[in-house]
Design goal:
By secondary structure, the protein is mainly α. It has three helices and no strands. It has helices spanning 6-12, 19-50, 54-61. It is elongated and about 70 Å long. It comes from Paenibacillus arenosi.
Amino acid sequence: MELPTSSRVEKHKAKSLPLGQQIARYLLLGLVTLAGAAMMIIVVLGVLFFSGETAEFIYMNF
């Protein structure tokens, strides 16, 4: 087994992005996450309200 030399170690180091790009990336990931959560909520509420059993569901559980 061969130990990695310094040139190999430098090749495998993670390249860090500039701070502005990191912030933009995290904002984009957060936006995608919030959009996905909103879509799931919209689908669930759509199924509830357009299934015809909304009033019974509301009175039964609340």
